[in-house]
Amino acid sequence: MSYQVLARKWRPRTFESLVGQEHVVKALRNALDQKRLHHAYLFSGTRGVGKTTLARILAKCLNCETGISSSPCGKCSACVEIDAGRFVDLIEVDAATNTKVDEMRQLLENSVYAPARGRFKVYVIDEVHMLSTSAFNAMLKTLEEPPEHIKFILATTDPQKIPVTVLSRCLQFNLKQMPSRAIAAHLETILAEERLPAEAGALRLLAECARGSMRDALSLLDQAIAYSAGNVTEQAVRSMLGTIDDSFLYSILEGLARGDSDAVLAIAEDMRSRSVGFDGALQDLGTVLHRVALAQAAPGAVDAEGGLRERLVALGRALGPEEVQLYYQIAIHGAGGEPSDAATPAGDRQAAARGSFDGDWPKLANSLNLGGIAKQLAQASELGSFDGEALELCVSPAAKHLAEKSYQEKLRGALQERFGKPVRLTVTIRETTGNTARDRAAAAVGRDAFVRDLVENFDATIVESSIKPAQ
Ligand SMILES: [Zn+2]
């Protein structure tokens, strides 16, 4: 049985199933039901909020064989083919890769021909702000006198880069980032349908890590299911994401607020005995302090569950705003200092770290200042080539979901930070040869005498997906 990734399986196919964009859906439904159709629509919003999903639903509304409506049947050949991504009159273009004027002109020249199957030829142009000026000009001509059978649906993460002449001819909708509470609730619904057990705390963590993007949330959920072998517990998700149990951090701050230094030291000792990384803990402490400051300034805006809201508000009352600011600075500056190198001045250490790439990509990948999926991208990729400026990485087709543009961008940023100069990064999808940070970690685990003993004498098996490279 083939496994379909959740993000694709649960991609909304109707307005009803779209989570969190009620304001846009309401306006579009009214326009469709009253047959007030526009030639061009622009959906703006951060990545993963559902722009192209919405575009496909709108394309169905316009081309459903039962008539134009806000509730396409989902059964006719037009609806089915649009859902399957193979409807001839739905032309989807990614402007990030088709920026040239010739390509745009070709596309628009073809637009004069009547649709082959549908009522309208629908052009969905994703990341439209990436088009060149001349490509925009070519499009503008069509937008000024659009043939009756054409609809444009433009999507962008950066509407400010779109020429005003184009903007003024579009009906604009701004899609909102989804609150983590709504994301967590949606994940819960999906897991119930999939009959998989999950802890509420696990879903809260995944939703927070997704930062408003349902697509990221579903992709993380897929990973969590694999990582935890189908039992999505809070502990498994914490370990997958590399986050630590918040309750330590809250207890530390509560101890500080009481002036109870013994309690604070006892918590630190407890963390040490559990091998909690202090670097990550300090970073997370910064996040908690940020939320305490928010609780002081705007208690109503605090979005937290499981009793954490009460603790945040109580901390906000117990600590003064200046104290919170001071602790925040200590946490932020404290993270990343390595006491063992204290004799070397910080500047020298940074210079030594810079440009010191010895070709050992797995080692570098593990040490980059990255989190979440961008870190996984680094650890799952293999070095193609590096000439001091341009770095080529390879990712196997199985891990291609990690190579999305935004994660590449984060990785590029971390490399630039490390090398102290801009790095041109390209990520190629092809079979890797087994020299990624992940492969190395798996090999090390396999060599470990204790592990070998377990495998040989106790019939144990190594779950490869559960292996994570150490920092
Ligand atoms: Zn239909």
Features of this protein?
about 475 residues; alpha/beta; five-stranded parallel sheet; three-stranded mixed sheet; 22 helices; 8 strands; about 50% helix; globular; binds zinc ion
Write up this protein.
There is one protein chain. With 471 residues, this protein is α/β, with parallel strands linked by helices. Helices cover 51% and strands 10% of the residues. The protein is built from 22 helices and eight strands. The strands form two sheets. The chain has a five-stranded parallel beta sheet, with helices on one face. α12 runs antiparallel to α13 (261-273), α12 packs parallel to α15 and α14 (278-297) packs antiparallel against α16. The protein binds zinc ion. Zinc ion binds next to α4.
In a few lines, what is going on in this structure?
By secondary structure, the chain is an alpha/beta fold. It has helices at residues 6-9, 22-33, 51-63, 77-84, 101-110, 133-144, 164-167, 180-193, 200-209, 214-227, 234-241, 246-258, 261-273, 278-297, 308-318, 321-334, 346-353, 361-367, 372-380, 405-419, 437-447, 449-458; strands at 40-44, 90-94, 121-126, 150-156, 171-174, 381-386, 390-395, 424-429. Zinc ion binds at residues 64-66, 72-73, 76, 78-79.
Produce the secondary structure layout.
Blueprint: H1 6-9, H2 22-33, E1 40-44, H3 51-63, H4 77-84, E2 90-94, H5 101-110, E3 121-126, H6 133-144, E4 150-156, H7 164-167, E5 171-174, H8 180-193, H9 200-209, H10 214-227, H11 234-241, H12 246-258, H13 261-273, H14 278-297, H15 308-318, H16 321-334, H17 346-353, H18 361-367, H19 372-380, E6 381-386, E7 390-395, H20 405-419, E8 424-429, H21 437-447, H22 449-458
Parallel strand pairs: 1-4, 1-5, 2-3, 3-4, 7-8
Antiparallel strand pairs: 6-7
The structure holds zinc ion.
